[in-house]
Amino acid sequence: MADNVAITAGSGTSVAADDIGSVFYQRVKIGIGADGSATDWSSTNPAPIRDDKSNRLIVIAGTTLTRPANTTAYAANDSVSDNGTAASVTANTVTISDTNDYPIGIASVELHSTDTGFGAANIRMWVYNSDPTASSGVVGGDNAAFSNKKAGFVGTLSGTMRTFSDGSRGVLTPDEGSLLITLPGSGAKTLWWQLQTLSAATPSANSTTFIPTFRAYQAIP
């Protein structure tokens, strides 16, 4: 028998249907578009699909921090940065978000160093979503007691370094909670970071370097 079923609408209108076991199932055509318009769904007009990045794992390296050309010992709670003068310190960055202003959750940071003198040292990373050096925000330079203004502060991650023949390496995790959740810098994809010693360490050479690898999850605003 014919699939279409006649209904009364004025002089009569046929409705698309499918006869399945003598039961009629109405056929419905999918249309997409803004309010007041509809375009048939087809291979040339596919349905919009949300790019869901809520569970996307990001593993990305930050910029390299190069210490000053000295082997001066660090005490616990000292700043590890690129300059001994606070006003000349450069905060390092990481381009961590896929899209401007998309929030992310940092699970851990793997910290690599060419310095064997930091093996067994406890290290803390301070994370910001605005440049902490702005407006004289860095109060203590390299090898001085770590001191910053609070603008842009997101949170900290800490861990213990391990010694290798060619340097040291450690994994830093959030000091509070399992994820450090934040927006990147306003209108950007960037976060800023700085290092602090939590125990004493004596550098093994001049101008040794630190490179962090961030492990994070991309979220949806």
Give an overview of the whole structure.
Helix content is 0%, strand content 41%. The chain has 221 residues and is mainly β. The chain folds into 2 domains: 5-40, no CATH class; 56-218. Strands 7, 8, 9, 10, 11, 12, 13, 14, 15, 16 and 17 form an 11-stranded antiparallel beta sheet that branches. Strands 1-2 form a two-stranded antiparallel ribbon. The two termini are 53 Å apart.
Please identify the structural class as seen in this structure: mainly beta
DSSP strand tally: 17
Order of helix and strand elements from N to C terminus: EEEEEEEEEEEEEEEEE
Low-confidence stretches: none
How can the largest sheet be summarized?
Answer: 11 strands, antiparallel
Which bin fits the share of residues in helices? Answer: under 10%
Estimate the global geometry from the Cα principal axes. elongated
Report how far apart the termini are.
Answer: 53 Å
Q: What's the alpha carbon Rg, rounded to whole Å?
A: 29 Å
Query: What is the count of helical runs?
Result: 0
Residue fraction in strands: 35-45%
Overall average pLDDT = 90
Count of domains: 2
